[in-house]
Predict the 3D structure of the following.
Amino acid sequence: EIVLTQSPATLSLSPGERATLSCRASQSVGNYVAWYQHKRGQPPRLLFYDASNRATGIPARFSGSGFGTDFTLTISSLEPEDFAVYYCQHRGNWPPLTFGGGTKVEIK
Amino acid sequence: QVQLVQSGAEVKKPGASVRVSCKASGYTFPSYGVTWVRQAAGQGLEWMGWISAYSGNTDYAQKLQGRVTMTVDTYTRTAYMELRSLRSDDTAIYYCARDHPHSVYYFDYWGQGTLVTVSP
């Protein structure tokens, strides 16, 4: 079973700063990784699929990259609404998908 | 517009069963699979399983095999998730989500979530 490890667990930043979130897979997963933003009281929101394909309506300050075992979600300049928990997710053969443990982006 | 509307909160006793519904609108229901994900308080997202709304084929997470059943009713455009033999650690928010048009197992639309509380 593929394990996704996200780091850091918590990222304390100020609005306007750059956020860099990491997701590492226990073995190569090609580009089969998605990123979600999750705010309290709301369902998760798809940001990227296949590592770097931006989902509909996602602002350009978000970018996704990576291949193989190392993936990155970057927020170039944090807006107040970007403070949330971010999850990476792998899709594969079996189990069909797994989530990382999440990175909380909090206001410093 | 695409919407997934879930049934309301449930309170159940240990050992009971719960069924959560997820009514879809705004798209061709049989064309997309539906997955169920849950989140316990203070925990991350946990995938529970997936069902094809076309064929009814399912994939379940190994830890829930034997306790979970997912079904769809294409006439009412509704997906269902039943979890049996409930335990306190099943207390969580349960979400349904639709497959992304690009591929299965990415999810672009989600239900609002259903809180299931298991308590004596």
User: Anything to note?
Assistant: The radius of gyration of chain A is 13 Å. The first strand of chain A starts at residue 4 and ends at 7. Chain A has a mean pLDDT of 95. Chain A touches chain B at residues 34, 36, 38, 43-46, 49-50, 53, 55-56, 87, 89, 91, 95-102 (CB under 8 Å).
